[in-house]
Design a protein that fits this description.
This protein folds into 2 domains: 34-170, Cytochrome c-like domain (Cytochrome Bc1 Complex, Chain D, domain 2, Orthogonal Bundle); 183-275, Four Helix Bundle (Hemerythrin (Met), subunit A), CATH 1.20.120. It has helices at residues 2-20, 23-32, 36-48, 68-78, 82-94, 104-110, 120-132, 141-149, 166-170, 183-198, 205-225, 230-249, 255-275. The longest helix has 21 residues, at 205-225. The chain has 13 helices and no strands. Helix 5 (82-94) crosses helix 7 (120-132), helix 10 runs antiparallel to helix 11 and helix 12 packs antiparallel against helix 13 (255-275). It binds heme C.
Length: 277
């Protein structure tokens, strides 16, 4: 009875994972009162998403896309409010493009998700379901999380570890409204992008330090010219702390890691316009 014992092991693993989460009970309650739309959402997800985002994979090596629970975590970090979460995920499902991807590590590893020609209405049902409900996790997921992301310096997937992008949740948009940037700061952010674009050849540690120095110079100008105030300024401050931490890493890492840090700085610069306008 090979199949039966396998099924038993899987269900045991699922139970064990469930037991780790204190939230499970309250969210289960929520799930029992879930609306018809939620049920439709789940059916749609099973039919259209599990082909790739399959929660029943046996190991991390089997997967062809990140599990939905990881996707949910990533979106919750960037979009803590339900409105934003549902809106952004709906946009993604209807029209996935490399430029808009949050999970850049996954894009590098699996390639960008294909367009599945899903209607906005169906996409909204699925996004709502994902926000409202506990998402089934593959049995290997908890252990993988601990190893990859648990110790704070986890490399995550290609440098997408939670801590590196903590600034995104710190300055999460309220009701989708971006923070107001002044023109001078916008210009300096563009200049920083330019500096990175012009310094693509980084073949030794001296080159990394040289790049760090140029970025520092431009950041000093940014501080001098900045006229932002109040909550917008606070958001900018948090954004810049994260950027400066990355920049400072350039002085500490070897050339093999250096380009990854540069890529992350570049990503954060590109993300400016998602949070400020
Ligand atoms: C053909 C395989 C495939 C199918 C089917 C699929 N996805 Fe994906 N999806 C991927 C891959 C690969 C990624 C990781 C790369 C990326 O982010 O584009 C991904 C990433 C995502 C992301 C994260 C996007 C980001 O910001 O990086 C979301 C959200 C998502 N999928 C939702 C869904 C939903 C909901 C469905 C069902 C309607 C679905 N996917 C169906 C392959 C698929």
């Amino acid at each position: 009875m090979k199949i039966n014992s396998k099924a038993l092991i899987i269900s045991l693993l699922v139970v064990t994972f469930g037991a780790c989460s204190d939230k499970a009970t309250s969210q289960e309650k929520q799930a029992t009162t879930s609306s018809k739309a939620d049920n439709e959402g789940l059916t749609l997800i099973k039919n259209t998403c599990y082909a790739c985002h399959n929660p029943n994979t046996k190991s991390h090596d089997d997967i062809i896309a990140p599990p939905l629970i990881a996707v949910k975590k990533r979106y919750s970090m960037a979009y803590p409010s339900k409105d934003e979460f549902v809106r952004e995920m709906t946009n993604w499902i209807v029209n996935p493009t490399k430029d808009m991807a949050l999970m850049r590590g996954a894009v590098d590893k699996f390639n960008v998700m294909p367009n599945l020609s899903i209607s906005k209405e169906d996409a909204e049902k699925m996004a709502n379901y994902i926000f409202n409900n506990d998402i089934e996790a593959p049995a290997w997921f908890a252990e993988h999380e601990k190893q990859q992301h648990g110790n704070g310096k986890g490399k995550g997937h290609a440098g997408q570890g939670g801590r590196a992008n903590a600034w995104m949740s710190e300055i999460a948009l309220v009701d989708g409204k971006k923070w107001k940037s002044d023109d001078a700061t916008m210009k300096h952010i563009d200049n920083l992008k330019q500096i990175i674009a012009e310094n693509k050849v980084l073949d030794d540690e001296a080159a990394l330090k040289g790049l760090a120095k140029k970025l520092t110079g431009e950041l000093d100008l940014l501080f001098n010219d900045c006229t932002m105030e109040g909550p917008d300024h606070n958001a900018l401050h948090k954004y810049l702390v994260a950027l400066i931490n990355k920049k400072d890493m350039l002085r500490k890492v070897d050339i093999n890691k250096g380009w990854k840090v540069v890529a992350r700085i570049q990503e954060q610069l590109n993300d400016y316009e998602r949070f400020f306008q």
